[in-house]
């Protein structure tokens, strides 16, 4: 197993040495596909084996609302910034990162017990979230300018929200704060490298 890991590192160094990149533009296909959220990211070379990844996504739609019968929505604006350290060369192979994130959201009729508590499907939540975490990822070289990245992360998120009845125009039921520890990031990301 140790020899396989060393061989993987050597291969990523050789592949990385053949390409000198400084910026990539990307979209997280997992986030975009699962939540129907258009998103865009940019990753910058900071020198050495460090890069800075900045991403933003905005979902403005009520997903299944039709003629006032449903108030289901996953409306959110979310951004994140991540400092990455590459084990070999930038934009190729393994990396570890430290990220911060922030979001503004308006969510209704979704069961999210870890974030918003039990029976969250029965209410609408409007508020903000801020957090931080650590991550691991790997970038696969697909071609001269294209990469595919997989990444996962875990950490802490603080949520501050107002709780409403889950009907269009529903009344406010109260306010709350909640702390969450667990997964904070997941992605399968398509990249174009300059």
Question: What can you tell me about this protein's structure?
Answer:
The protein has about 190 residues and is mainly β. Helix content is about 15%, strand content about 60%. The chain has three helices and eight strands, in the order H-E-H-E-E-E-E-H-E-E-E. The chain has an eight-stranded antiparallel beta barrel with strand order 1-2-3-4-5-6-7-8. Strand 6 (about 125-140) and strand 7 (about 145-165) form a beta hairpin. The longest helix is centred in the N-terminal third of the chain and has 16 residues, at about 1-15. It is elongated, with a radius of gyration of 19 Å. The relative contact order is 0.19.
How do the strands and helices of this protein lay out in sequence?
Elements: H1 2-17, E1 23-28, H2 29-35, E2 39-47, E3 50-59, E4 73-86, E5 93-108, H3 113-116, E6 123-141, E7 146-165, E8 172-193
Antiparallel strand pairs: 1-2, 1-8, 2-3, 3-4, 4-5, 5-6, 6-7, 7-8
Rough shape?
elongated
Number of strands: 8
- Give the radius of gyration: 19 Å
Across the major sheet, the strand order is 1-2-3-4-5-6-7-8
State the assembly state of the protein chains.
Answer: single chain
The amount of helix comes to 10-25%
List keywords for this structure.
single chain; 194 residues; mainly beta; 3 helices; disordered N terminus
């Amino acid at each position: 197993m140790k020899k396989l890991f060393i061989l993987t590192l050597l291969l990523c160094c050789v592949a990385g040495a053949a390409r000198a990149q400084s910026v990539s533009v990307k979209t997280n296909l997992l986030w975009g596909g699962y939540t129907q959220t258009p998103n865009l990211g940019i990753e910058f070379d900071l020198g050495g084996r460090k890069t800075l990844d900045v991403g933003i996504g905005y979902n403005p739609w009520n997903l299944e609302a039709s003629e006032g019968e449903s108030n289901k929505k996953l409306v959110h604006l979310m951004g994140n910034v991540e400092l990455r350290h590459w084990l070999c060369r930038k934009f190729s192979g393994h990396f570890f990162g430290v990220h911060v994130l922030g979001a503004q959201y308006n969510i209704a009729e979704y069961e999210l017990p870890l974030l918003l508590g039990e029976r969250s499907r029965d209410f609408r939540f409007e508020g903000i979230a801020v957090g931080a975490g650590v991550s691991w990822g790997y970038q696969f070289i697909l071609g001269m300018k294209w990469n595919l990245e997989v990444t996962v992360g875990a950490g802490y998120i603080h949520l501050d929200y107002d709780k409403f009845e889950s009907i269009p125009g529903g009344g406010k039921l109260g306010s709350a704060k909640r702390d969450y520890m667990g997964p904070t990031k997941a992605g399968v990301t398509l990249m174009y490298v300059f």
